[in-house]
Design a protein that fits this description.
Mean pLDDT: 83
Distance between the termini: 27 Å
Strand content: 5-15%
Number of helices: 8
Low-confidence stretches: none
Radius of gyration: 18 Å
Number of strands: 6
Largest sheet: 6 strands, mixed
Length: 211
């Protein structure tokens, strides 16, 4: 039986980006089961979402008056259907390759059969160039615990290392909420800290590392 996936998309004043994301979801070779849009746009409800977008996608649309990534995602978590197995987050400017959800479903079956995996991130193939990379490669920096060549870890200093583009399945200690899915039972009682209001810088690090 195919596992069911729900995606939560927090958005604000980015109608064109959201259209592109929804179109990439519509073209998936393995369709998603629920799409929760939590919209804090100044203009209110987007009429363009009515049809044809809604007729071809399982969209649940909610207008949320307080613009805050953390608050919007937390609200979205309360709207996930009980039959979902995985709950994911997508930034509104993401575009998924057409086999992305299919590959994630394959990975979930493979990894869960062998490891206790709580969540998985999509591979960000156009990840921006990492800043200060030459400094991060200095051995003394790693020795002092300021950075590490290991991807996706949280250091004693509090710094996190970026994941970037990976060639293979990679075990990490945190996941960016740009494009990731979590086992439903893992995040059933977990929420984003609403201390990270507004843009929510590093709210995904706090959320995923806490789990």
């Amino acid at each position: 039986m195919q596992e069911k996936i729900s995606f939560i998309i927090a958005t604000k004043d980015r109608a064109e980006e959201l259209k592109r994301l929804l179109e990439s979801l519509r073209k998936q070779t393995s369709p998603v089961d629920q799409i929760i849009i939590v919209d804090s746009s100044q203009s209110g409800r987007k009429e363009w979402l009515e049809k044809p977008q809604r007729s071809s996608l399982p969209v649940d649309y909610y207008y949320y008056a307080i613009p805050s990534t953390s608050n919007q995602r937390n609200f979205g978590l309360t709207k996930v259907k009980p039959e979902m197995d995985w709950v994911g987050f997508l930034d509104d400017d993401v575009i998924l390759e057409k086999t992305a959800v299919e590959e994630m479903r394959k990975a979930s079956r493979f990894l869960l059969a062998r490891y206790n995996v709580g969540g998985m991130g999509f591979n960000l193939v156009n990840h921006p160039q990492m800043e200060f990379q030459p400094l991060k490669n200095i051995p003394l920096v790693e020795k002092l615990g300021l950075y590490s060549q290991r991807r996706g870890v949280v250091l004693p200093s509090g710094f996190q290392t970026m994941i970037g583009i990976v060639e293979n399945d990679t075990e990490v200690e945190w996941l960016p909420s740009t494009a990731a899915i979590w086992r439903r039972e893992v995040i059933a009682r977990h929420r984003f800290d609403e201390y990270f209001s507004g843009y929510g810088y590093l709210e995904d690090l706090d959320f995923s590392y806490s789990i």
